[in-house]
Write the structure tokens for this entry.
Amino acid sequence: MSERSVIRAYYDRVVAADFPGAGTIGEDEPRIKAVAVRGCHGNTQNLLFFTFTVEDGCLRGMRYECQYCDPTMYVTAELLRELLDGQPVARIGEIDDEELTEALGGTSRKVLREARTALGLLAEAV
């Protein structure tokens, strides 16, 4: 399956589920900048933020907010939310490319690059 097909299939699933992890991050909530990627029209910057709480050593209530238009950001956000929400904090450092590829349903260099960046920044934030 081509990279585009992999991204499209996962994105279609996210759209059909109505972006389950998306939401506005409130002023009083932690806002963790996870990915900033240049792209889109006019070379604007696409931004991805996460918020969550840590309870009993686990990530809880993980949500994300995407700004601008790159569909792979939504794919990356949902992928990481699915893999991490409710999991021990240590899980952030355990997720590798093989697990990301399996959860994604195929290989995407772009999603893997974004996910690696996000995982690194999430680990720093926790």
Remarks:
- The domain at 3-125 is CATH 3.90.1010.10 (Sufe protein. Chain: A).
- Residues 76 and 115 are 6 Å apart (CA to CA).
- The mean pLDDT is 89.
- The helical segments are 3-16, 71-84, 97-104, 109-125.
